[in-house]
Specification:
The protein has about 230 residues and is mostly beta strands. Helices cover about 5% and strands about 55% of the residues. It starts with a helix and ends with a strand.
């Protein structure tokens, strides 16, 4: 979570584009533009004619849950999906829309990155957000969402840590309970250690109640590891 919060702070200090060109005419002029507005907090899909100084026409409108920030186009499930950053009590969170038939279709209610974890050719969406603090530091809500053909759905598992090579996400300090069981979920090469002892992926384990350091060793740029709290 430390690395995720550092990245969020860096993003908050950068210039934030609140509109993006979604498509262009052959002339190079904008055809469709996605724009976020404030008061009211909305996402607009604007269509322009292929003419100099053309005025836009609103072809779709979506009400947003909070103050919008950055708007960008990214490949999530389609080559061009729309990612919108929204304000939250502690920072921001991202949502993802498709554009289908000149309308917005929400496909993810939280978004951090899209990556194919299981190698089936369909990406999963990973996200993390601030949840609070304890004696071990900051902890967060972590989710893995899978595509059901229409939208990304949370896998309903409780993850207490998420690790990835680079960007300061190789290790984390987490508070674990002696009354619970845990298991490491590892996607890709590498190994995971807890307090410098290697943990076998998928094998449930118990530990003492304390702050513990979990770390990802080795792996590739696409390796991801999660520590799951299991139902007893």
């Amino acid at each position: 979570m430390r690395g995720l919060l550092a990245l969020a702070l860096l993003a908050a200090t950068a210039a934030i584009p609140t509109s993006v060109v979604y498509s262009r005419y052959r002339s190079g002029r904008p055809r469709l533009v996605v724009k976020a507005t404030h008061n009211p907090d909305e996402l607009l899909l604007l269509r322009y004619a292929d003419a100099p100084r053309a005025r836009p026409r609103v072809v779709a409108r979506e009400e947003l849950d909070s103050w919008p920030g950055e708007v960008r186009v990214a490949k999530v499930i389609d080559p061009k999906d729309v990612v919108v950053s929204l304000s939250a009590r502690h920072g921001t969170y991202d949502v993802v829309d498709r554009i289908v038939g000149d309308r917005f279709v929400r496909i993810a209610d939280s978004f951090g990155e899209a990556i194919d974890l299981d190698g089936d050719g369909v990406p999963e969406v990973l996200s993390a957000s601030y949840a609070g603090r304890n004696q071990c530091g900051v902890y967060g809500f972590i989710s893995i969402q899978r595509w059901n053909g229409k939208r990304f759905i949370d896998d309903d598992r409780r993850y207490v840590a998420a690790l990835a090579p680079g960007l300061g996400l190789e290790d984390d300090e987490v508070r674990l309970s002696a009354s619970k069981h845990y298991a490491v979920r590892l996607f890709g090469p590498g190994r995971v250690t807890l307090d410098d002892e290697e943990i076998e992926p998928g094998k449930p384990f118990e530990t003492k109640e304390d702050c513990h350091t979990i770390a990802l060793r080795g792996g590739s740029a696409r390796t991801r590891a999660f520590l799951e709290e299991l139902d007893r």
